Amino acid sequence: MQQRSRWSIAAVLTAFFVFLGLIASSPAAIAAASLPSPPTITMVGSPDQSIPARPQFFQLSPQAGETGFTVLGYDTETTSDTSLATGNLGSGGTDAAGRGGVYTGDGSIVQYIRARLNVTLSDGTPYTTGWSQWVKVQPAASSPTNAAPRTVVLGDSFSSGEGVPPFESGSDIAKPNNKRNLCHRSTNAYARVLQRDGKIDLTAFVACSGATTQNVLNTRQYPSQPIQALSITKDTQLVVLTIGGNDIGFGDLAAACATIGCATQTASVETKMIWLRKVLLPRLYNAINARKSSSTKVIVLGYPQVLPDPNVVDISRCAAIGIRPFERISSGEALILRQITTRLNGMIESAAKEAGFSYVDPSRSFAGHELCTKDPYFNRLQGGQLKTYSLHPTSVGQRAYANLVAATLPSAS
Fold first, then answer.
1. What count of other Cβ atoms lies within 10 Å of the Cβ of residue 305?
2. Is residue 154 within 8 Å of residue 231, measured between CB atoms?
3. What DSSP string runs through 240-270?
4. Per-residue pLDDT tens over the stretch 161-202
5. What is the sign, positive or negative, of the torsion defined by CA atoms of 15, 16, 18, 23?
6. How many CB atoms lie within 10 A of CB 105?
7. Which of 97-101, 275-279, 335-339 has the lowest mean pLDDT?
8. How far does Cα 175 stand from its chain's mean position?
9. Whole-structure pTM value
10. Which 3 state secondary structure label does DSSP give 259?
């Protein structure tokens, strides 16, 4: 009885394993076993290595029949994701190996990414793989590994990047009024250029088109726009700004010069310039000194000459400084605007040095690149909805500003 029982158990087990073998060899089982696995993500630097400490590109492990990908990103390893990038392979740009898609964040919020692939199986059936493992985009620490200075960029339109779209989210809202914000912080402003170059660790970019010293010091320009100086802390290592042009009404002066003549505004500008030098700049610079640490470097950038010397460059037929025949800047008006710019820069420089700040003169970097020259660094005079772009640096001009700042940094190389 015991021997027959043992043989019965053996027979049952044999039959069971044979059954499993039949299942495993079935077409459905073979197909399931050969389904593509989740991809592997490798973070690689951008082709130009512009941010070596913050990889911009990911590479996905190859899969036969792949047709697209989805990448999700989040600030922690979690199942609650936010979409980071989707599209066909390579649609967002490719890495040096020619595969993958661009990672567009700077890592300050999105710390982890994971991916899955869309593939077409050998029988033509579409299939989506499972999710890959989470991959850490960069160290959680806010400072880049190259020890670039923790930087705050303040000021007006010449620092915000007015005239150089696209503008950052939340800084180009015309309506409704309670959400209005036209700071026009450009993704190609010199602050962002320096950040992408790895020259600075940009902790706050709060410059705003139209800002005055008061907006930097203690007054909100828009409900969603912070008081700029509050972004400076004792941990800030570098502050960069342009300020003063709106305090003297330079935009109104330029508009008058192009229409009814500079003379209608020059007396007002003269009065405002005196007030700027005696009161407004010292008050602002004192407040910055009070907020920063003793080792914080402050760079005050001057304003470049937008118009050429009409004694050197014939501007009489230059289309860039006219909208219509009765709206254009004449040679005489151009001389006045150049003189005002020179005097304004002199006042900014003296006040900055009084406060112990560094002043950077942009005149040489922009010389020969004024409007009406062969290679201008400025937006032409414009009307309508684009009038705020008028006479502001282009992306090339913002790059020139970035180079000026980079040249003053100890780590500049």
1. 21
2. yes
3. EEE-STTTTTHHHHHHHHHTT-THHHHHHHH
4. 999 999 999 999 988 878 899 999 999 999 999 999 999 999
5. positive
6. 16
7. 97-101
8. 23
9. 0.65
10. coil
* Bond prior to 176 in cis (omega within 30° of 0): yes
- DSSP H helix total and E strand total for the chain: 11, 15
Q: What is the CA radius of gyration of the chain?
A: 30
**198-222: string of b/e by CB count within 10 Å (b at 16+)?**
bbbbbbbbbbbbbbbbebbbeeebb
382, exposed or middle or buried, with CB in 10 Å at 0-12, 13-18, 19+? middle
- Range in 5-9, 182-186, 387-391 with the lowest mean pLDDT: 5-9
Residue with tokens 């006479």: 391
Query: What span, in angstroms and rounded, lies between the C-alpha atoms of 28 and 16?
Result: 19
Nearest to 112, CA basis, from 201, 41, 63? 41
Distance between CA 292 and CA 260 in Å, rounded? 44
| Interatomic CA distance for residues 102 and 90, integer angstroms | 8
Tokens of 132: 């890959």
Q: What is the pLDDT of residues 21-35, one digit of tens each?
A: 554 445 544 455 568
CB 367 within 8 A of CB 356: no
- Coil, strand or helix: which one is 381? coil
Burial degree of 236 (CB within 10 A; 0-12, 13-18, 19+): buried
Q: Which of 393, 404, 184 is nearest to 306 (CA)?
A: 393
53: left (phi over 0), alpha (psi -120 to 50) or beta: alpha
Stated length of the chain: 413
CA dihedral 54, 59, 61, 65 (to 10 degrees): 150
**Does pLDDT of 243 surpass 80?**
yes
Give the integer Cα–Cα distance in Å for 408 and 154: 17
pLDDT at 322: 83
Per the CB < 8 A criterion, the answer to whether 334 and 261 are in contact is no
Mean pLDDT of 261-278: 95
Query: What is the distance in angstroms between the CA of the first residue and the CA of the last residue of the chain?
Result: 91
| Single-letter amino acid code for the residue at 210 | G
Structure-token pair, residue 55: 């990889």
Where do we find the tokens 């330079």?
250
